[in-house]
Write a structure and sequence with these properties.
Elements lengths: L1 E4 L2 H5 L4 H13 L6 E3 L8 H4 L6 H15 L5 H18 L4 E3 L17 E4 L3 H4 L10 H11 L2 E4 L2 H10 L8 E3 L20 E5 L8 H14 L4 E5 L6 H9 L6 E4 L6 H7 L3 E3 L8 H8 L4 E4 L4 H5 L3 E4 L4 H13 L1 H15 L4 H16 L1
Parallel strand pairs: 1-2, 1-3, 4-5, 5-6, 7-8, 8-9, 10-11, 11-12
Length: 373
């Protein structure tokens, strides 16, 4: 089986759940004797692919040289983009593949694959359900629908995502959609130390729009103001914007909130040492941070909404969506009850065992074979 893996997502993400998904799946599939994977990449900054076994020796050398040139202050962005586009186009024109895998929703490949099959993974239906957050994006919804209609097979990352697809687009053939869950990647590196507060609750990742960060701050402001030793640590997501800083200052929380960027091998420590992880998002197609938190023994507070119950199961401490009083009460209960934190930590360890990249990769492999047939 010759698979042509579209490099789009690796060119666009330095970190991110989608690029991690493909890196994990194909790191396992590469071990299959009958699988040949072509990833036409000249160079990219994606952390997962750079640390994987998917790159050829030639690619590793090229990546190293380009990174070295960049460190010398010489801009390589335009050159690398041009080379990446050329490699991807040549791979399509060569037509030496059995199956094509788009990694996001670019439809330009349709002009080149002729009658070759392709499998589309749908990560969520957030653009369709919350269009108000994506007014500047006029392409994703249109392109995604086009690809779902034309795809030989569709992978939905959760049953909830499959349900959303069929609810929004009932004409899509249900029989060609298969649910394949993500796995857990995170590990706690005991050889490093991370400087963190002694007493904190955790928020991870980007904060805008449906992530519900402002709602979280309003909900926990009284808790933070009452206990000056307690901090909210925001891991990743970039520095606070001027708008966010103003909002934090209005709530008098400037001394209670910390934003830290982190290296990939540090993230496990953020979860492991937190009193709890709060995931107030309105919607997620899957929610990899849920797995990360459970794998590190960190209790999770999250909404009883979208894919969350499917992923967290009985290891989740659920609050009613957008109910700030309910969220506050759930967090206070956890903070005041060490035995409850231990109970949900153990539940998380058990629940995360249900999600495994090796199992996911074998399910993908089976689906790829059926798509080719």
């Amino acid at each position: 089986m010759k698979i042509l893996l579209d490099p789009q997502i690796f060119n666009e993400q330095v970190y991110g759940g989608i690029s991690r998904y493909y890196t994990e799946i194909f790191s396992h599939l590469k071990k299959e004797k009958k699988v040949v994977i072509n990833l036409p990449l000249f160079q990219c900054q994606n952390v997962y692919i750079n640390e994987s076994s998917l790159l050829s020796k030639k690619q590793c050398v090229t990546f190293y040289i380009i990174n070295l040139i960049s460190k010398l202050g010489i801009s390589t962005r335009k050159f690398v983009k041009k080379k990446n586009n050329k490699l991807a186009l040549n791979a399509l024109l060569n037509n030496d593949f059995d199956l094509y895998l788009p990694t996001y929703y670019d439809i330009s490949f349709l002009s080149f694959i002729e009658k070759k099959p392709f499998v589309l993974t749908v990560y969520d239906m957030i653009h369709e359900i919350f269009p108000q957050y994506f007014e500047d994006d006029s392409k994703t919804v249109i392109n995604k629908l086009c690809l779902m209609e034309k795809a030989t097979k569709i992978i939905a990352v959760s049953q909830n995502t499959k349900n959303d697809i069929l609810r929004l687009y009932p004409h899509i053939n249900e029989s060609k959609i298969e649910v394949i869950h993500h796995g857990s990647s995170i590990k706690i590196n005991h050889n490093i130390e991370v400087s963190l507060p002694l007493n904190y609750i955790l928020f991870v990742g980007v904060r805008e729009n449906y992530k519900n960060f402002e709602f979280l701050l309003k909900s926990i402001s009284d808790i933070l103001l009452k206990d000056k030793t307690l901090k909210l640590v925001c891991a990743g997501g970039g520095k606070f914007t001027s708008y966010e800083n103003n909002f934090i200052n209005k709530l008098n929380l400037k001394n209670s909130i910390i934003q830290n960027n982190f290296k990939e091998n540090e993230l496990g420590h953020y979860y492991k040492n937190a009193k709890c992880f709060i995931f107030p998002s309105e919607y997620e197609g899957f929610g990899i941070p849920i797995l990360e938190s459970m794998a590190c023994g960190c209790p999770i507070v999250l909404t009883n909404n979208s894919s969350f119950p499917e992923v967290a199961g009985n290891a989740g401490i659920y609050f009613e969506l957008n109910n700030s009083v309910d969220l506050k009460n759930k967090i206070e209960n956890l903070l005041q009850n060490e035995e409850l934190r231990k109970e949900f930590s153990l539940k998380g360890f058990e629940q995360v065992k249900k999600f495994d990249w090796k199992i996911a990769s074998m399910k993908c492999f089976k689906l790829y074979k059926s798509a080719i047939k």
